[in-house]
Amino acid sequence: MRRTVTNRRGTLLPSLFLLFIPALLFAKIDFVIANDGVMPPKEVEKLEEMGSELYEKTGLPVFVAAVAELNATRPVDLLDKIKKSYPDYILLYFSLKPTAVNIFASENAKKLIDIDQILSPLPWRGTIKPVMSPAFSKKESVKNEVAIFNGYADIVDQAAHSKGVKLDSSIGSGSKDSFKLIRWIFYGILLFFLIQYIYTKVRKPRGES
């Protein structure tokens, strides 16, 4: 009887361990690793949703850090922690003082997204910097929120597309196209006033020699 009990106990522990393996492998990860009051709770929740789905389907973590001061929370310190746990990663880093935005990624992850396009200041290419332009008559806090959200969504969607997966949490091309249209309207208005200003400066009043 003792041998039977011992064997049962011996097989019970490994069986229990196997039950906990999925929980250990898919433990909750915080993809918003820093937020100094830059992003509201609802936005953070949506970013976490997109990041979680991408990670579950591809194994690629995309992190975002929105900090108040660059010197207080440096990207190098965040990257040191990320690299210890993830061989492949992407980090969208945003700082208020001084205003700075950048994308850091492992060599393999760089091949999945177009960093130059995402960070482009051109309104027909970039999804972050054009939003932060003075052409938008919005509060700085609102522009920062929109810039981070759109940039992160663009990164996640591009990575998912490169991996051949579809994200249910994606904001969709419809929202992106609508936002691009708004950007074009703002820049069109800005260009119109610029041309009008140049025209009035160059044109000489009638009667002048």
Description:
By secondary structure, this protein is of the alpha/beta class. The chain has one domain (2-171): Roll (Diaminopimelate Epimerase, Chain A, domain 1). The chain has seven helices and four strands. It has a four-stranded mixed sheet with strand order 1-2-3-4, with helices on both faces. α2 packs parallel to α6.
Could you provide a short overview of the structure?
By secondary structure, the chain is of the alpha/beta class. Helices cover 56% and strands 12% of the residues. The longest helix has 31 residues.
Averaged pLDDT: 81
* Unreliable parts: 1-26
Q: What's the architecture, going by CATH?
A: Roll
For the largest sheet, list the strands in their spatial order: 1-2-3-4
Separation, N- and C-terminal Cα atoms? 119 Å
Question: Which geometry do the CA atoms define?
Answer: globular
CATH topology-level name: Diaminopimelate Epimerase, Chain A, domain 1
Largest sheet: 4 strands, mixed
Count the DSSP helices.
7
Give the number of domains. Answer: 1
CATH class: Alpha Beta
> Which structural class do the helices and strands define?
alpha/beta
Helix-strand sequence = HEHEHEEHHHH
The share of residues in helices is: 55-70%
- Computed over alpha carbons, the radius of gyration is 24 Å
Strand content: 5-15%
| Tally of DSSP β-strands | 4
